[in-house]
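Possible race condition, two jobs.
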Amino acid sequence: MDILSFRPALSPFVKWAGGKRQLLPAIARRMPGQFRDYYEPFVGGGAVFMNFQPHSCHISDLNRALINAYLQIRDDPWKVMTDLTKLDTSLTRTGAAFYYDARDRYNRKLQGAQYDVETASLFIFLNKHCFNGLYRVNTKGCFNVPYNGSVRPSYDTANLEALSRFLKGVTIGCMDFEEAVLRATSEDFIFFDSPYAPLSPSSFEKYTKDGFPTSDHLRLAQLFRTLSDRGCYLMLTNHDTPFIRELYQGFSIESLPVKRLINRDAAHRTGREVLITNY
């Protein structure tokens, strides 16, 4: 890994469930001192790779709308920002009615599988102005989060410009997590931040219409062991639950306090997560 001090600081352009900004100091302490390629198969808001900005960086996610936003920011950040300015201006003038009109437009784009600059701009705009910044879709794959009443700007120009420049050297993909790390070899570092295991049967962690069921957690745990045997450096985060501890028994498990800012119930906005490594 080669992290250069003159690189500008980068911040996530969307808020994402399970975002890792509050855990960055703990992650930094536990990262391997040296590694080759960096992989992040559940990139989400991207706080980790944006903070450390490693060379030979590979990011991916199964959420196609999210990956489209990364690609559009990489390829045409000024068009994204121009669209966002128009959306913000209309929101200021019209309020909630415009938000719901934008949400309807976005869902029509999703249903038509139209992943372009407009879809990316609507995706970012809705994330900034929806309740708790929660990206949630229903069983039909439609975004259904209500308006939060905010008219704050949807983007920071300097951040999107710097992010666009950095992303030009990053491999970006939309694929299953197993496919995303097929080329990982010994001494590569892989950071796993999958959708979390539920804390209770009523927990809601779905950000694609297919969710992330128990079978996927079992598959991820098996992949973790396979990659460990391959000689990769691995780090994984999840809720601190008996289920997760059992899945990763035999690896180093550190429990950390966290604030769950997206939880709708204020009484459940604190908890514990685990940071699991194979080294």
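Job #2 (started ~2 s after job #1):
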Amino acid sequence: MCSNFEPATLDQIEVIIESQYALNLDGPLADYKPHVYPKDYCPIIIPTEDGMTVVAGQFGLSPKWADKPVDYSTYNARLEGIENKKTFEPPFTHNQFCLVPMQAFFEPYYINGKNHWQRIYQKDAEAFTIAGMFEFNPHFDEPIHTFTLLTHNADDEAFMSQFHQPKKEKRSIALVEADKRAQYLEASHNEIIDLMSKVEGDRFAFGEG
């Protein structure tokens, strides 16, 4: 699971999408936080008819049928059985996938039974994109985009299995590599698994942050 992260800067996002883009900085993106937690806003990349577009997304998916923010955790969505989840099934089966640009994310690391939060980042310090799913909710006083990070079991992953409580299931978010980003945004829900990559120790490192 991933409950907090450092979003990429706007300059880094411009490099990621490889083009100039129109961005309204009068709203939640005017001063988005350098460290994002559930309910905070940050930039996400969504598909449009004209290609990639950057919008402000609230961390924690609010389903389209909700008339107010949900009172349970929706910042991560387990890929296993996602089609059977009332909150996540509609955007999943309607292929509403997004990219979440990050500089780093944080996971708990236990030493002698005590949690030490670790900052996980690319060794080259470059930004990267994480597989997400979004919803647009028009029913709130101010219509918003919201999003969740897609997760998978990481029990057998050498790098990501180091985190979270001992003897508990290990979960991980997934990378979308640069050459797969456009495909991921346009993919059907039956195709996205093949467009995701694992977070691995050859490229990533961690330390207390």
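The chain has one domain: 5-18+31-208.
Logs attached separately.
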